[in-house]
Structures are given as structure tokens and as C-alpha cells.
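[SOLVED] Need 3D model of a two-part complex

Original post:
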Amino acid sequence: MTASHATPAHPDALTYEQAGVNYDQVDPIKLLAQQSAKATAASLVRHGLSEIVASRGESAYVLDAGPFYLASIVECLGTKILVADAVYRETGKSYYAAIAQDTIAMAVNDLITVGATPLIVQAYWAAGGSDWFADKKRASDLIAGWKAACDTCGVSWGGGETPALAGVVEGGTIDLGASCVGLVQPKSRLSLGDNLAAGDAIVLLASSGIHANGVSLARKLAERLPNGYQSDVGDGQPFGEALLAPTILYAPVTEALAKAGVTINYCVNVTGHGWRKLLRHTRDLTYRIHTVPPVPAVLSYMQREAKLDNAEAYGTLNMGAGFAFFVKSEQAEQTVAIAKACGIEAWVAGRVEAGSKQVIIEPIGVTYGTDDLKLR
Amino acid sequence: MTASHATPAHPDALTYEQAGVNYDQVDPIKLLAQQSAKATAASLVRHGLSEIVASRGESAYVLDAGPFYLASIVECLGTKILVADAVYRETGKSYYAAIAQDTIAMAVNDLITVGATPLIVQAYWAAGGSDWFADKKRASDLIAGWKAACDTCGVSWGGGETPALAGVVEGGTIDLGASCVGLVQPKSRLSLGDNLAAGDAIVLLASSGIHANGVSLARKLAERLPNGYQSDVGDGQPFGEALLAPTILYAPVTEALAKAGVTINYCVNVTGHGWRKLLRHTRDLTYRIHTVPPVPAVLSYMQREAKLDNAEAYGTLNMGAGFAFFVKSEQAEQTVAIAKACGIEAWVAGRVEAGSKQVIIEPIGVTYGTDDLKLR
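Solution:
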């Protein structure tokens, strides 16, 4: 890595630690939780079932249910809700439909990485008080956005939980999460990376902006800006509203690829840790990127204003790439065409090579190595 | 209903509305959400699948996945965490393992009502800040309790989400939730009440105390008591710690019943709304109760101190009955015996009769009618 997050290149740079996220405090406990979780899989034997061991540490958990695999996940929106709350307070503009789509995207975009067709979404909406739901505009926008996102992904919204949790959730806001269940069917669609190999093409799909990761940094930055969320990001859009562009839902693409017979060897949902996520798979392989997508205005603006060098920016934010497919090189162009047919810009952006585990982003001269991503 | 929650029988009585829970504000939006959710089921057709319509409004959502039914749910612990936090602050005693069991119980005890074998649990642990996990005792107790509860239920802990959400979740606490996925296999185990009929026996299973419902009332009451959570509930136990008896996990009983060939016509997880939950099924039937279980000390204490009459107490709290099975009368005693073999006290407590939709609790002279429970 040409620059680390602990020692920012620019003395005024806003790091993720300064933004209040301390991965060091979370990680040892996360590890203990992962080890304890792993040990519980033994219970499945009594039901005549088994887990797919390789799915632990991946973005969704996979169970072998016999005729097909069963994938499941729970995810949360995180602090992006606070941006929507601030914009609503300052301008009266409701972005709660967008926020609903973000929440579903957090769950569905992770679930599809293992090759699952998402089928059921459950809503987890924990408000700071019953009064959150008394604002009919806000609440009905949330519902409308949730329904529309379910329809886009072809999932049934099964139900959920809408507790009022004063004292646990801050007053005036809401903790949004979603669980998602899907089936990998036929089983050959399982894309845990077993066939990921040197020679594979890396296809990147466009993001719409920040999606829902890197938001703590954006919020910290807004505090520093004289005009806060009203600051023009350069294309006339205020910072707050630009941040609230909803996360792209990639499920229509994975379904279209399956239908077209494209084999996905592996997927990465580019979320926290930005492009360092491309190192997600355990295998020692080199990911060489020759093309980077255009950077959404809101992310260029953030990079400039937070004084992040390229290594910091691409290591934290999606920088225009929201999702990555690893496919056989002969199916790369078809993958791009199918994504475009789904209305999502895409690029054959690089290739997988034999070599040590690293991501080399040639156009910007940045390399991330194994020390830069510890997710397991 | 002999007394409503809007007009408490005793002038000093502590109602649920006074405790900060306003169902009126939540319900119209809940209804809109339910209608919107229902409309999304049409998407399943494109996958060649369909939902079990009758599962909407029940405690878990059921999909017909072909060879078996797939059930899923997301649930949260709610404000019981604040009791654990208070006791930890006041005494240094950690009840975070108990709280973990409560959270899993909220999800698993609901999931099993439809006849599903719970298979996968995902953890949703949203902390008010990264520092929540820096207290190793608290965090490792949470993990240990979570793992133990998974082992008791025979589920695999698939993974989860442990975000630090300063600004969304209150500092110093954590929003705990769980999603659960299970299979109904064979399909004949589906217990959505199609065969619920006059003549069925009602078997009640013991609760361990308050479980995780009615906690807002308990917290409000603690504020009124001179010794707060340190008040003796009558058996030497301090109120706070008595409240933290973990919710009983009923999954071993449903699995044992299935193994023994007992057919469960319907189940009710007695949570919010107390015994009014016995009215859950849509059918017009009368539920006549001739035996009430012994009331745990903590609940007798709450009833007395909050000055609740029996209609209020049984309509809000579980009063010693945490779960109900509706079975053919000839299998009632066997159901009790199997629950006891699982270490859970149980009683043949009543019967289902033809008649208007009501619960008649004879030993205490309380009747609840259809106006008393609007969950759909």
C-alpha cells in the first residue's frame, strides 16, 4: 500500500479514525464472534444438513439444503440515515425512499455475491420513538422506497419489525436494517471463488455515488465545510443531496447473467474499505486494474475537500465502482453488455494474474497488499 | 375485555401508554407497510415460487420452496438491554449472556410457531460506538450467550453485522436483533392454524419471567420505586436481576414434538399483548382457559406495584405462560410430558370451543374479545 490510513499523506487529511470509526476496537471481538459462530455449525448435522464452510467470511452465509443452497444475511444502513435526517431538517426534502433502497441494497448486493437469487426481504426499522412514524410523509416515503426496491430485485417483502426503542435508538432517527434470504439454484451458480483463476477478467459496475459506505467520513467533512450539506459538489448539487443518491441494486444484473449463461467465478460488493475489497478472496492472486471508472462528482469532491490521496480515497470509497464481477475473459464483454442492458454502466477494467495477493490500480499508481484488508 | 388499557381500573395504575409506547401512532403506518409488503409477493412468480398467503400476519413469513417450506423472520430485543445496562452499571454484574439468549428467543420462538425447524441465525448488533466492544467482559459474555442459545436451538450462527452507529444508537448501549431462517419439512408440519378447531386442547408452557415484553413498563416502574432495580421482588431477588432471567427457548420442544409425531395445529408465542395474543388466529373461536400457571415472582411484583388489575396484567405480560400449543385433545398430555422432558413446565390449560372470538380466563374472571387485539 502506498499510503496507510494510520499515517495520512496530507497533514490536514480527514482519516476514518478521526471520523469516529475505530476498527481496532471492533476486530478482536469480531474474531471471537466468528470463531464462536463457526463452532455452532456442528448442530446442522442433527438436521441432516451442512454449511458451505467457504461461505464463512464471505458476504453471505450458505447452507446446503439438499436440492439447492440457501443463502442468508442481515445488514444495516448505518449512519447514512443521519444525512437524510439533516437534509430533511434543513430543506424539507424527504430522501427516505432513497434511504430505503440503500438499506435493501446493503443486504441484497451482499447476498447476490454468492450466486443466490434473492427471494425474501424482512424489514428491521427501529425508531427512536413512536413519533418517528407519526410523520406520514417520511414514513410513507420509506415504505414506498422499500417496496420499489423489493420490486426491482424481484424479492417478496415478507414482513419485519418496527419497534419504537426510545433510550436505545436516538430520538428523532431510526436504525434501519434488512435481512435477506435467497436460493442458489441450480447449485452450479454458487460463486464462492473456487474457480477464480489467473486469466479471469475483472468487470466493474458503476456506483451512483457514495452508496452507504464512507458516510461517517462524509458527515465529519460536512461539519468542516462552511456551508455544510448545502455546499456545491461542483455540478450544482448540494453535498447532502448528492450523498443521498440511492445505492444501485445489482440483483437484476446477476439474474440476467445467469439467464444468459454467463458463469460468475466470484463477485465483490464494493462497500467499506473501498477497492481494498477486491482482495476479499483468500486465494493468493494479483488483481491488475487498467481502467478506472469516472468518479462521481460527490466522491471527487470528498477526495479533494478531505485531502485524501488516491490510496486513501480508493481504499475507503468506491470511487465509481460499486460492484465487481470476476468472469472468464471470453465472457467479459458479454457481462458488460448485460449490465448496460440493465441500465448500469460497466467496464472490463482489469484481469486476474498469478502472483502475490495485491490489487494494482495502474491508472492511479496505487497498490494494496494483504496488510491492507483484514476482514476475516 | 373487562378493562381496557385506555382507562386503567386504578387511578395510579401505570399503563403502557404512560410507559412511552403509543400503538396508535405506529399502527396506520404498520398497515400501509403490510399492504405494500403484500403486493411485492407477485415477484415470486418469476422465480416459479409462491408465498403462503396465510403466513402474512403470522409470526414468521413462509415461502413454498418446492420440496419444503422456507420460513424467515427478523426480530429485536428491544429495550431490555437498558435493564442489563443499568444492572451492570449499578452492580458490575453482567447479564449480557442472558440478553443474547433473549434476542435469539425473540426470533426463534416466533419462527417455530409456523412449524419450522430453525436452522440459521444471523446477529445484528448495532452499538452506539466502537467502544461498546472494548469492554471485553460485556462483549465476550454477549458472544458466549449467543453461541449457547444457538446450540440449544440447534441452529448455525451464520454471521451478522456489528456496526458502530454513533448518532443512531445511543452511546453506551447496543441495539440487538436477530434474523432466523428455517425449513418446514415435511410440509405437513406447517402449523398456520388450518386445522385449529373446537375441541383442541390448549397447552401452556412456562415462562421464566418477563421474557422480553412489557419491559418498558418495568423500566417505568423501576423509576417509581425508591430502591429502583435493587427492590426485592419478594423472593430475595432484586427487581433488575429478576427481570433479566433469560427468555425460555422453546425450539427443543417443537422439535421433540415433531419427532414424537404430535401434530401441532397452531402455536402462539406469548409476547407483547400478553394473553391477548391467544386471539392471534383469524378464525372465530373461543379459547376457554381453566388453569393458569403459577405467576413468576417478578411478574406478581410488577402487577402489585404497578397496580394492574388482572385484565391489565394478563393483557400485557405473559404471567407465567410463555408459549401456547393448540393440539388435538388426545395429544395434550403427551405434549405436556414432552415439554417437561425438555425441562420446561407445562399444563393442559384449556380448550378451544365453537363461539365468538374471545379468550375466557376462568380462574381470574377475565375475558378478552376481538377489540382487544389488532395485530393485522
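Edit: Residues 193-372 of chain A form a domain with the Phosphoribosyl-aminoimidazole Synthetase; Chain A, domain 2 fold (CATH 3.90.650.10).
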